[in-house]
User: Fold these one by one.
Assistant:
Number 1:
Amino acid sequence: MSIIFNWTCPYCEQPTTITGPNHWTQTSHIETNAEENKRVSIKLTAIGCPNQNCNELTLFADMHKSNSIKPLPPGYKSTSIGNKITSWNLLPRSKAKQFPDYVPEAIRQDYKEACLILNDSPKASAALSRRCLQGIVRDFWELPKGKRGKLGAELKCIEDKCDPDTWSGIDAIRSVGNIGAHMEKDVDLIIEVEPNEAELLVELIETLITDWYVGRHKRKARAERAKALTSAKLDQKRAAKKEGNPPILNTTDNDMDS
Ligand SMILES: [Zn+2]
């Protein structure tokens, strides 16, 4: 049976179609003297990203219950794969996005670790996310020392400067269960959270990094390109004037805005 399925690469985030050559899978039934109802199978799946600029390897393991097929003639054994019990991401280790180097290292590190322990310890993940969130607010908005304090108060400080859509994302978190209730507590304090609350915090960090750091970088790059284009056009005009040639077409200053 040939394998074809749609898939989005966790490294380059490009949606793509996986076919046989990009895909490898193997299942092992683990044979021990464990009780029959505790027997498990491990299914390993590997996917090589077909994007030529990426080509990264994704690897994950699923653990299933093993079911013995009966009846069989004496001396024969056969096993089939049962329901999935759990799975592990082996490569990459978590669903953390790769953010560019211009996002401060400490912020990328806290975010990465918050993703890594999201399933095993939501409260530790939420603690890292809250610290990361505070780091982002302080660094991106250059919050002066006098305005630094509890996370909730610091977020309030930037409400007026923030894009309304981004602010509504932050505000939504402020109303979520224990995270919202403990906004005024120190970010280093571990608070009990639900797994979905920890996930919401990770998603908010991704949104803020994208809207703020990546957005600012793109705006700067666009402005620099426009500046370079304008000065090239001015140079052309000056050169044409010097040589006594009329400028090509009836160029007006309005052209510079286009
Ligand atoms: Zn890829």
Number 2:
Amino acid sequence: MEKKHANHNIACTVTQCKNHCCDADYCALDRIQVGTHEADPTVCECTDCRSFERKEGGCDCRG
Ligand code: SF4
């Protein structure tokens, strides 16, 4: 499997994303875009990583 560089400035546990570094809880991108799906966000659940891309074939990071 392709080895990706862990960006220690962007912690992330979404291993289903193809931008996840896989071998630790970090994103592999240099930068990400964060946005919201709410008109008036009030809690962290209102925010989203807009750089998420679904990993084809599901998660193969662990297990
Ligand atoms: S793009 Fe977003 S969701 Fe995907 S690994 Fe990076 S921070 Fe996580």
